[in-house]
Amino acid sequence: MRATTLAVIFGLMASPVCAQSRTPEFNRAESLFNEGLDLRSRVMVQVLLTATGHQNSVPTEQFSLRTFGALKRFQADNGLVPDGVANGATIGRLMDLGRPNLDTWDFKQISHPWRGRPIWMPQGMGLRPVASKNGLSFQDPNGRVRVGYNNFPGVPVEAAYESLLDKMRRDRFTVHYSVIKSGWFVISATAPSGEDEYVRYHQDGDGILGFTLFWNNNNGNVRGERIAILMSASLGAAMNGRPMIEPPGSSQGSPQVAANVPAQAPLPAQPVAREAPPVAPPSPPPAAVSPPAPAPTVPKAEKGISTGTGFFVDAKGNLITNAHVVKECDKVVVKLNDSKPPRKARVIATDTSNDLALLSVEDAVGTKFASLRTGTRLGEGVAAFGYPHADVLASSGNFTLGNITATSGMGDDSRYYQISAPVQQGNSGGPLLDNYGNTVGVVAAKLNVLKMAVASGDFAQNINFAIKASMLSTFLEANQIDIQTGNTTGTKLDPADLADAAKGMSAFVACQ
């Protein structure tokens, strides 16, 4: 579909369809948070908010409404302007008040002895590991805290959740909070004795892996609920592939936050999604990589039209694409693989840090949609589908095969897979599928081969990147979108059948 045809499509539309889903106050605070802090500092601010008791949700690299509210409460409690902005004065006060608790807890990163998954452990409280039949147990000599970090082979996460809840009810526990989501659960409760308990387990292979934290305020108030949130964040990051920082214990010095400075430049790539995954790496990028340009997929034509790919995540017309595909759009239309004209669409949520956008597409109820699968392994076969070079190539879409060539992106960014499936300008936002037809990622970027060749003398081939399904799942859950969970229990699909599945859930996205 050429730019002139796209211009005709947009000419039929009556009004802009991009929408703000947050207040101007929130948007300002979010923008300053994302642009003024690097990835480590964004997580650290939320760790400090948890340490002071103002944020009761797990710290992540994202700026959410909960973080916004927590910052405003902290500012109001400390005589600061309650605008929700993580400025220098707010961060300085956060460090003053949060540091004492972090020093007391002195978290260290401990790995499960045979599953290898790391978790934060508050060893500053005298906790020392003791081997158990399921992993490790930790006991505070003063009786304030005890922890079990356990693996139970052959136990489904759903069965464990129901069994534990039933036992707590029989034993007359007061259950404060319980939730089960795709592949994991959390329960918070208090025993009749007054001892508090926090449980988090994830599906890990054929069994479950997780921890149970107990604390007893009668033996000294150690703010156990805050310890639980930080331990939960660290395990969730390890299991779901989210970014997480090193534990900010007293032995590692003051918890530093780089405030009011530009975030580290994202690692670049050749424009396909954007020029590279939007990362803030812990170390400087290689010389072969240059700063990214904000150009989406296809360079804008004379009438300012750009294009990309998206795919449906439910039967209600909700579609995922890259955030940069719909950046600064006045009008968005989506063309499905049918004979009907393009539909209008509106942007209902974006996550610029992770380059994801959620669109609502008119008259798209009942469409085929993706089943999401996390935990893809190194070397697995994958396939990409999209609409590259929409002005010159086939309008019916493009299907390519490859493999997971690394389980992290540039700079060891754990939010991304590196893939060998060829992608081009216009594949942005398209699905990455496994051999069973599950969606395991969102196509995002490719390495700039020319710049790599100039720097190293080597022409790198098929170095491309996709956002992991775990990041997409978190984004969808935050926006109350029900997720269809994929599996690998069926028969692997032939490439032609896999292409049909990919095409059936995908759509061409045009932005002006």
Strand order of the largest sheet: 3-4-5-9-8-7-6
Arithmetic mean pLDDT? 81
Whole-Å distance between the termini? Answer: 15 Å
What about the largest sheet? 7 strands, antiparallel
Question: Can you give a write-up of this model?
Answer:
The chain is an alpha+beta fold and about 500 residues long. It is built from ten helices and 21 strands. The strands form four sheets. The chain has a seven-stranded antiparallel beta sheet, with helices on both faces. It has a six-stranded antiparallel barrel with strand order 10-11-14-13-12-21. Strands 15-16-17-20-19-18 form a six-stranded antiparallel beta barrel. Strand 7 (about 185-190) and strand 8 (about 195-205) form a beta hairpin. Residues about 1-20, about 250-255, about 260-305 and about 445-460 have low confidence and may be disordered.
Features:
512 residues, alpha+beta, 10 helices
Protein topology:
Elements: H1 3-11, H2 24-36, H3 39-51, H4 65-77, H5 88-105, E1 107-111, E2 118-122, E3 129-132, E4 135-139, E5 145-152, H6 157-170, E6 174-181, E7 184-190, E8 196-204, E9 207-215, H7 224-240, E10 306-312, E11 318-321, E12 332-335, E13 343-351, E14 356-361, E15 381-386, E16 398-406, E17 416-419, E18 431-434, E19 439-446, H8 449-456, E20 464-468, H9 469-478, H10 495-505, E21 506-511
Antiparallel strand pairs: 1-2, 3-4, 4-5, 5-9, 6-7, 7-8, 8-9, 10-11, 10-21, 11-14, 12-13, 12-21, 13-14, 15-16, 15-18, 16-17, 17-20, 18-19, 19-20
Task: Give a short summary of the structure.
Helix content is 25%, strand content 26%.
